[in-house]
Design a protein that fits this description.
By secondary structure, this protein is of the alpha+beta class. The protein folds into two domains: 2-87, no CATH class; 98-206, no CATH class. Helices cover 30% and strands 21% of the residues. It contains seven helices and nine strands; from the N terminus they run ββαααββαβαββααββ. The longest helix is centred in the first third of the chain and has 12 residues, at 19-30. The N and C termini lie far apart (43 Å).
Length: 208
Amino acid sequence: MLFYCKKCNNDIKKLNFQEEFHLEIWAMLRQGLKLFAIQRLVDEYKLSHKEAKTVIAHYNDYGKCHRCNYNHLDKEYINCPQCNAFNYNLKPKTSFNTEFCTYLSFKLNFDDLGIDEIKAYWCDGIDSIPRNIIDLSKSNILKNKSIITKAWIGKSGQDEYEMEILLGDESIILYEQNESLIPCIPTSDFKDWINIDTSRKHIQIQLK
């Protein structure tokens, strides 16, 4: 199936991305790795370099047109009503996202862990792109029940830690349904769900 971009006058292929491949391309583009994304399309879908480049050129952040400042695109495979550019507008179907990571970083309370060494610690952010993006596929979540990413923690909030997030029964159910994991972040008894090892720069989080 082909779509037509009225802005650049190109035919755009509809690609039936598998979940893991879509996550991989999405992560590459989030990190500015367009050339790598183009090559993955060439390798996986046997597209020409020109075809793959055209696909990536029209691959946008969900809701935001890749050509203008319009940010209310509300469905997949859509022409922007403001500039007529075609946008794939594919939304990554994962509950592990910037909103969740931002909320979790604010909820980490190191003072109540009862460890003098870390009483002044705080978290300045959690990377919403994990160490292995494929870990976010539903099949891998069901298999591994964990996500490994980076977090910035310490007295300055800038020491890089490996963060292992363990998903409990409630969070796995919500993940399967593409629902927010925020309700699965405990709000008390911090010793029961936060385990930090400052010597190894490792922190483990247990969701409900």
